[in-house]
Design goal:
single chain; 204 residues; alpha/beta; Rossmann fold; seven-stranded mixed β-sheet
């Protein structure tokens, strides 16, 4: 059975973090819908904050940041979760995706989610986070998941379906996109022909 590479980007700043909690629940739900055929890599942006700042100054990523960027670039799908500050994504979240090449996420399935202290910030997913990934030409799943503090442990109502219902719906949409595309084929190592052999071929 082929295995999907699923990368989870969490921009939570505290530890423990409600942002990371939401990210883990989304990843678990997606893996279940893929029948367990997924390899999950979690990127905690709080651990990369210094590397991200240095990259903007020097233009060169450190080893940890380079590994995170490569993981996102080669992922089959991405779950991106940010806390909402001042009605938008966090600066750390935006800075990380600024580091990644603009073509790296083109056509890649992405599930977006966010956390905040109040339900009033839920529309930030639609007016800030979704346009960011639309600019990067990602395929964003229809259901964006927002979790306010009161959502954790709540059952919801007939209009919202509760946080668990939103997580399940978004995970199902992401899994369907991944299953439709199939896992990316492993990259083949580049064949390097020694310069002497190239010269010999020209002389023939």
């Amino acid at each position: 059975m082929s295995t999907f590479k699923l990368v989870v980007v969490s921009a939570g700043l505290s530890k423990p973090s409600s942002t990371r909690l939401l990210a883990d629940r989304l990843a678990d739900a997606t893996v279940r819908r893929l029948g367990g055929a997924a390899e999950v890599t979690v990127i905690e942006l709080r651990d990369l904050a210094t590397d991200i700042a240095h990259n903007f100054v020097t233009g060169f990523p450190g080893a940890a940041l380079r590994g995170a960027v490569e993981a996102v670039t080669h992922a089959d799908g991405v779950i991106a979760v940010t806390p909402i500050f001042t009605a938008s994504y966090s600066g750390l979240f935006k800075s990380f995706f600024d580091v990644i090449d603009h073509d790296a996420l083109a056509g890649k399935p992405v599930l977006i989610a966010a956390t905040g202290g109040t339900p009033r910030h839920s529309l930030a997913l639609e007016h800030a986070v979704r346009p960011l990934f639309a600019y990067l030409r990602s395929v964003v799943v229809p259901t964006a998941v927002y979790a306010a503090t009161d959502d954790f442990g709540a059952t919801g109502d007939r209009h919202t379906g509760g946080l668990a219902g939103r997580i399940d719906r978004a995970a199902e949409e992401l899994a369907a996109l991944l299953a439709g595309r199939g896992p990316a084929a492993a990259e083949q190592p580049e064949t390097v022909v020694p310069f002497a052999e190239q010269l010999a071929a020209l002389r023939v």
